[in-house]
Design brief:
The protein is mostly beta strands and 1356 residues long. It has 7 helices and 112 strands. β59 and β60 form a beta hairpin.
Amino acid sequence: ADGIGENARFNLGTCSIEQSAAGVVVLGAGNKIIRLMSLLSTSTTTSTVTSSLTESTSATATATPTSTMSYSSSTSTATGTNTSSTRTSPTSSLPATTTATATATTAATTMTTTTMSTTMTTTTTTFTATTTPVSTPTPAPTNVPTPPHMPTPVPTPSIPDQCGDEICSPIPLPSSTTTTTTRKSAPAPQPTPSQVVVCRDQSVFSQLQNVDTSDCKGKRQGETCSPVCMTGFTGSQGIFTCTSDGRFAGSHPNDCQRAKCSATTFPSMGRGVTVPDFDDLRIGENITLSCDPAYQSNSSTIFCRADLQYEGRPPMCTAKTCATPNIAMYDYTRCSGVEWGKSCPVLCQPGYTGKFEKFTCENGNLKGTPPNCTARPCFRGAPFGPGIDSSTCAGLAFKETCDSRCDRGFEAKGEDTSTCTATGVFTGASLTCTPRTCGNLEALPKWNVSSIDTGRCFAGLIRGRKCVAKCTRGFRGTPKVLTCDAATNTLSAEGYVDSNGSLATAVDIPVCTGKECKYGIPRIRGAQSDCSGKTTGESCTITAKPGYTGSGTLTCNANGVLQGTRPTITPATCSLTSELSQKGVGSTCSSKSTGTFCWAWCDYGSDPKITKFECAVNAATNNTELKKLTTNDLSACPTSSSGGRRLQSSTCGTSAITAAGLSAAKYSASACLNKVNGERCVVGCADGYTITGTASLYTCQSGSLTGTAPTCAAIACTYNVPNGLGVSHDCNGVGTDSSCTATCGEGYENKGSNQTWTCGKDGSFSGTNPTCEASQCRKISSLSSSFDDSGCTNVTTGGTCYITCAAGYEASASAALGTQTCLSSGNFNGSLPTCVPKACTGGLPTAISLNTSGCTGTATGESCDVSCKAPTYSGIPSTLTCQASGYFSGQAPMCTPAKCTVPASLSDISLKHNCDGTGVGSTCLVTCADNYEGDPESWECKSNVMLSGATPTCKKIACDYGIPRLSTQVNSNCTNVVFGASCSLSCASGYTGAVGEVVCGSNKQFQSSSGTAVLAPVCTAKSCAPFSTNNTSGTCQSGIGFGQSCLMNCKPGYQSPGDPTVTMKCEANADGSVELKGNNNIACSPIPCNIFPESKYDSTHCIGKSYSETCTVSCSAAYTLTGDPTSLMCDANQMFVGRTPNCTIKTDSYEIEVSGTVDLTVDNKAAFCTDPTLLNAVKMALVISANSGSQGAGIVDYNLVTVECASNRRLHDFSTGRRLQEIVKLAYTMKTFAATGQENSQGSMLLSAVSSITQQSLTANVNAEVQKLGMPNLSIGVSSIAAPTSRAKGVSAKDFVATPFPTPSPTPLPSPSPAPVPVQVPVTARADDNGAISKISCPKATLLTAGVALVMQITM
């Protein structure tokens, strides 16, 4: 009925009762059917119905012939759905007013046909209706209503011979009553109404939720319908049959729930969203999705729409990350953006070495132990070169600084601070060291001495070079070798130091003595001097010897020549002696000068007495006098000629002299000039000539001179010989009046022309020296580079110079200098110093990456190779040269840490690393490649240029995201699929559709094989072929989709030994095909009729009849047959239908009654005892169990059986405090009627039938009846059956007790096998103040074996 449902409450207000052929209905507002009261005939009935719906509410209705009753009441509330009927005979003559009273009570003791809710906790109201005829009753039709718990009704077959074309109504059963029926006259025959039964009572559906029962509207008796879930709901179908009492019987799983949205429409979740495990939402439901704890975003809600599509977007989740700190030494680069819960390696910053440490991002903070980082030492880049000292940079590491400096004598330019960078290379310094120069040594007063030539110790001499301070030309002495140190502390000495490092101001200067002048020493006739041995700068004096006059001074010049104005030395003239002045003495001695010779002779006489005189100095007087060299006495010379006076006719003149051959210069013939004839003269040798013998006597004869010429020889000049620097002459031996040539000798250059010198009569040469300039000596070509001959530049002939060891060489102490003299040949001649190369001590790079061992001992001019230290460092070697400065020159190798070769094992696709180019001493990180996971490892480039470390164990990362939510229609093998692997989404068995290939891509995200988002395949359920067998019906006879179930039961009138309704399901086979599976071997056999007509009828011929079979029915012995027996047919409801005979009870009949109790176990006693449906189910089980025995087939009349709850008790599990099932004692009474004399046999038969009920059969039948009510989860157990008792009483006489029927032994309960062994166990019980046991404790040592029954008997 519309609006009637479980636990529905109705405010009736004003309603009406409407009577029709279908019965009496209570109509509420809007003509909604509230309750079907009863089935009525079509005859007009007037009655007054008084109904008390509650204890405080009553209402009265008056029925009118129009079959319409007005019904009014105050507001009432009814809970549940109850049906109470009042049956009125259509053939009786009722008075104008018939009163029917319906009483509502909460504790029913008497029940009519009642339908109620199965909810145990609902308070139910049971109506008891009693009909009291006003006049003597006439036979009334006895329509038998089908109890609500009867087996599934099916259409009643027609009986043409009795019912014609009409559908016969079921035979009504009399209502149960607890009152004792007194003897009455036999009731009139009850003809069966001939109307079509339409099931309008749909109260059986009131318990169904969300079920569409429209298919059951208008169904007639025997027709079936299949309630389905309402639109928007899903669940199973049910099968119901319209039964003969106008109600539906059947079952429905009552599992209709709102339809679920298709899983394929659930939006795909991105990374960071984990969808909780939930069943697909039903319409109207929603789920809130949030990002995983390690992600952040707003939550979003996904709704299930009415069109079964999901609506909503997933949250856009952004992974939470940890901020990276900025801490020196530690490199957090790889932790940038690290997500919560994940780890990352923290490395040492560039410039540091050390193994990484793993940090974990926890709650926004990176946590871990920082790595042990050590600053990397710098291996190159510190300044080096001539004069640079970078020793303070050795061993420095990253971020440390050092200051390079210049060595002594060098001047710094540029930045001198170097910083060790992360690359291991020093940077920042631009220092260059330039050698300083020394000043002029002559600037030192001590050295500013004319005799000292400071030579190359001039201003600008470069640091480290040597110079020689020597004596100047014209002086001699030991030179001094000085070195230009140019250091700051030597500037006071103009930067010069000696070999001992002493300042030039502190060392002794050379002791220079003048050289002796060998040129220009005067050799003048008549002069004397002290010039011999004079040395440079000294002067000498020239004085005249006795007999001479004149003087002069000369100075010894540096060129070794005495220079100055030479004096003129004039010889004195000798006066003639008296001897020579006397007459008769002739001579040549007039005006003779000192040192000359002359002759005297006698002019007359025979003896000329030729006498030789010399003008000489008287040693005694120092006077110049003519000194007679022969002993002739000229005083004895005649004064006149003895021959008288001579004629003066002729004179011997010049011509005579010439003719006599005496004009030559060697002759001194001047005495003969102008001699007259006969005079004699003496011809001697001229001055400058020497005579052999004596002078010759000549006589002038006739103008001619006769005589023999003397022998005269020129005297070689020995005075004033050409003498000068470089002057060479050929004057040696040149005599008087001869000449010679003076020229420049070898080693000198004549700056003019050769000069002629003449030997004078005085024995002195006269002439001018040529201008001779000393030639420069040629450079010593064969001199090696180990010598410094710079001091021998521009040395001229005769000059001396010194050779020192060249820069970069050092001399031995014994031969520190070499002395060279410039020879006239233009070549030097002399000694050389002993010079050995000096090892370089500076300018060598000191980087730790360099191998400079090959440069140890490398001396000036030598080269060495500098290489990178192998195998730690690599680079191209370079060559350095030891320079004269004592420093190496050249470029250092560009060494870098040797690069370790990456082993092939690190090329695995699962790994990635930064080890390419990793240098010795450095570490690199080997991690898992993208889409792989595992702990990273640190590898170190060892000194053997091999990478060493552990290889990470990397596994492919399994994809977590990207698979859409899948329905059960889709199979997925995408669990634990790792990167690069494929999986598939395919339709599950029983479904058809395309297979979707899925690839686990990057970032744990699944993607399709084409790289797009993954879409679930569209799967369509396969349909199973229809299925049916003999005598079955149901929903399996049409196409059923995979996964769906259908119901199959026996056709009306048939039954199966087991469950009358079989569920089959469309399931898949191994080959993918589908078929209906289940208990398809249902064996449907005709249903035997167990419900016989009332006991007043003799139904013995109906025993064993099944569906559609007929039997003949007459009256029982207690009744009188009026008319003929009739034929009844067994219908599908296990009832016999048809016209019954007209039986009237006999006045002497007996009523037989059998009573007993049954102990039932139920979940809730209150709910059970107030639920008439369940009580009727137990009642039917009792009837079936009794009639099934051989002793009582058909003897028990359902309508003459009553049941009621007598008492109950509750069981507890005291060890857990859990309440167990309750035990209800159910009292029952079964009646029958017997004719006089047959009461004992009839009673014995009834008692035997009841006594044959076993615990096992009753339990099975009770639960079978409950299952028919659609309560599969409800279980009622039978714990014990008490022995029944019986009695018989007359209908018209007093009650009496007949002979007791023999009590059969009850069927014993099955015993467990093996039999239990009694064990007495002492227990401790705890009771509360009311005596209720709250806990029973067994000892811990008690052991129970599985399957062994434990019986506990407690005595209080």
